[in-house]
Amino acid sequence: MTMTKPETRARSLRAPLAVAAAGLGAATLLYLRDPHRAGAYGFCPFHVITGWWCPGCGGLRAVNDLTHGDLIGSLSSNVLILPLVVVLVVAWIRWLRRRWGGVDDRMIVLGRSATAGILVVLAVFTVVRNTPWGAVLAPT
Amino acid sequence: MSDPNQPQQPDPAQPGPPPGPPPPQPQYGQQPPQYGQPQYGAPQYPPPGQPPYGAPQYPQQPGYPPPGQPYGGPPPPAYPYASWWSRVGAYLLDRIVVPLPGYLLAGLGAFIAFKDARSVTTTYSGDYYYDSDSELTNVNGVGIAIMVAGILLALALLVWNMVFRQGNTGQTLGKKWLSISVVREADGRPLGPGMAFVRWLLLWILGDLCFLNFLWPLWDPRHRCWHDMLVTSVVIKGAVTAPQ
């Protein structure tokens, strides 16, 4: 019953393809310009001001490690990045399939509980990685 | 990226209850429908987990939920939410372009103030001590005054734009140029200067925090940043139809 015209479908697929291009472009940039070199992409303002690690600190290094296939290195830079990348890839594939089927929705929509959960995880992660006991979660 | 504003009509084959609760503010029902939604302005979120219109919709469209409603997601939005790009654009315009006259004046003042100034360093030294003293001389006092006036002008423009203009009309100049506005979610009215100030302050305090706050509209069901959630505002397309 739902027949999708080709031109409609092409328009629907524009957003997923743009997101994929942006993601691959960012990964390529992080592969070519190594964020392990201090200041290669500037400095985290939170870390500069407070001296603490923010939840995103080590994120660029973690992506760079992933582009080299170094899973352990990625997890030791920022333990959240590997699961995040997996979630994003899965969400993107499902999104592509929905858009192919004619449903023009967004890639990810977070409900109230998901929002609360993510913010709590980020807050706890930020605190723990700045304590002596949680030093294993600090970027290396 | 998405189009959450598609009108969602109940299936005519199944005459169910009218969509959503009756609008709490009758004057909104008399506004001409601008976005193809008959009850624009009246939030109509049914309790979570309950289908929006009571009537089962899946049997009519096997395999696909109705457009605009993600899988297991929230009910269709009551507002035509502004796009992320328009919000980023308005933010940059409000931060850079609106206070620009003040910045230019301050720059002109600084130029006049320090054009002929020179730094004189006096050195004192003896057998057991060494000291030096630097002093700026020949600073133009009028230039300093112009510089301070420029900074105050930029600040005044920011406060007028972000607090009073946005609070009273729902639109900063940047939002007006990009045809979006910020309203109270409960009734679609402008925030008022007080809440507009609180919202601005929260934006300041929260900053972007690893870009998360700025990116949050991308995946929030109602396209909100954290400072929107905290003052229960939403940013919508178009101007406020009923300014107070």
Characteristics:
heterodimer, A: 140 residues, mainly alpha, 6 helices, globular, B: 244 residues, alpha+beta, two-stranded antiparallel sheet, 4 strands, 11% strand
What does this structure look like?
The complex is a heterodimer of chains A (140) and B (244). Chain A has 140 residues and is mainly alpha-helical. Chain A is built from 6 helices and no strands. In chain A, helix 1 (6-32) crosses helix 3, helix 1 runs antiparallel to helix 5 and helix 3 (59-67) runs antiparallel to helix 4. The model of chain A has no long low-confidence stretch (mean pLDDT 92). Chain B is α+β, with helices and mostly antiparallel strands and 244 residues long. Helix content of chain B is 37%, strand content 11%. Chain B has helices at residues 26-29, 84-97, 100-114, 141-169, 173-177, 193-206, 212-215, 226-231, and strands at 118-125, 130-137, 180-184, 233-237. Chain B has a two-stranded antiparallel ribbon. In chain B, helix 4 packs across helix 6 (193-206). The radius of gyration of chain B is 27 Å and the shape is elongated. The two termini of chain B are 32 Å apart. Classes of the chains: A mainly alpha (140), B alpha+beta (244). The A-B interface holds A 1-2, 15, 44, 46, 54-56, 59, 98, 101-112, 115, 122 and B 1-3, 48, 61-65, 67-71, 73-74, 209-212, 218-221.
